Amino acid sequence: MRFLHTADWQLGMTRHFLAGDAQPRYSAARRDAVAGLKGLAADVGAEFVVVAGDVFEHNQLAPHVIGQSLEAMRAIGIPVYLLPGNHDPLDASSVYTSALFKAERPDNVVVLDRPGVHEVRPGLQIVAAPWRSKAPTTDLVAEVLATLSAADDTRVLVAHGGVDVLDPDRDKPSLIRLAELDRAVAGGLIHYVALGDKHSLTNVGASGRVWYSGSPEVTNFDDVEADPGHVLVVDIDESIPERPVTVEPCHIGRWRFVTLHNQVDTSRDIADLDMNLDLMTDKERTVVRLALTGSLTVTDRATLDACLDKYARLFAWLGLWERHTDLAVIPADGEFADLGIGGFSATAVDELVATARAGDTESASDAQAALALLLRLTDRSVA
């Protein structure tokens, strides 16, 4: 038996830094990743798809987001089982109980709206642990496992949330306890655990049967999401009592959120950064966050700004990671000596240079910006 394990679609997600047409393209890519499961399912012969929580970004969605999302699920063509997660719990405002969702839900889409066993077909069950609020006070998985008794059926547990061994706060009451999962697997109560919530592909524990699929499209930068963009193809051999499991990750994501750390002290460093940005492919689907440190002359800072302006037009988004950027701008000796100005204007430039060298103050920053603009206006830097 073969199926697809995915999670954290978060349809309707917006990223505040995406402007212009980048946000609509990003939203379309997330829907396309869902509809594209049809081709993957056909290629591998999958019976069904499980979505382990956070199908939607939240419960308050525009009607067109719900409609387009359901159409993407319809396109998959095989049964799709949706688990409510922390972003879209089964609370009073749940998207799953809205009139629009119920009216337009395709026949192949099934909401796992109650905890416990759901029959897929004779001999195959999904055990679901849906969220009913954004902040459960118990381990929902442990509660469901406690209701199970031994059976001859193949069972796939579909759950959402953090696992205790991966969370620094081990005392959170909602955490899924890996020891409970391992006991259920070892006892044959369940044969595979499809998890959602962690957006990077992650094999949990040593059994090889407990996995986070991660989000099929990236949602955050690479310091947070190390390995996004996957769907898992899961094989369970039902002909053997132990139900051996094989898991194959398939990368389907097309967007990238990249962080670059660069030291920039010279014009050569800026040229190297320019070359690295130029060599990056698929710029229209790439988000770049720059952590830059160093000391630059005003001329070099103006060159850097021109470089960043150019690539900001080419990438889906490019900008500075302010918390990790520390650029000092120090006018070099004689840097403004040959501008060809005199009198009051020359005196004003000298005062700006002195202020710019005064240190890390707002006035110094303003003076540095004014000097950089002056260089641009006199064609001393890259435009």
Automatic annotation (TrEMBL):
InterPro entries for this protein: Calcineurin-like_PHP, DNA_Repair-Maintenance_Comp, Metallo-depent_PP-like, Mre11_N, UCP033093_metalloPase
Protein name as catalogued: Nuclease SbcCD subunit D
Domain Calcineurin-like phosphoesterase: 1-171
Keyword Nuclease: yes
Leader sequence residues: none
Pfam families: Metallophos (PF00149)
The organism's place on the tree of life at top rank: Bacteria
PANTHER family xrefs: COMPONENT OF ATP-DEPENDENT DSDNA EXONUCLEASE, NUCLEASE SBCCD SUBUNIT D
A molecular function (GO) term: exonuclease activity
Lineage: Bacteria, Bacillati, Actinomycetota, Actinomycetes, Mycobacteriales
Keywords assigned by UniProt, alphabetized: Exonuclease, Hydrolase, Nuclease
Protein's UniProt keywords contain RNA-binding: no
Record Gene3D superfamilies: 3.60.21.10
Family of the protein in this entry: Belongs to the SbcD family.
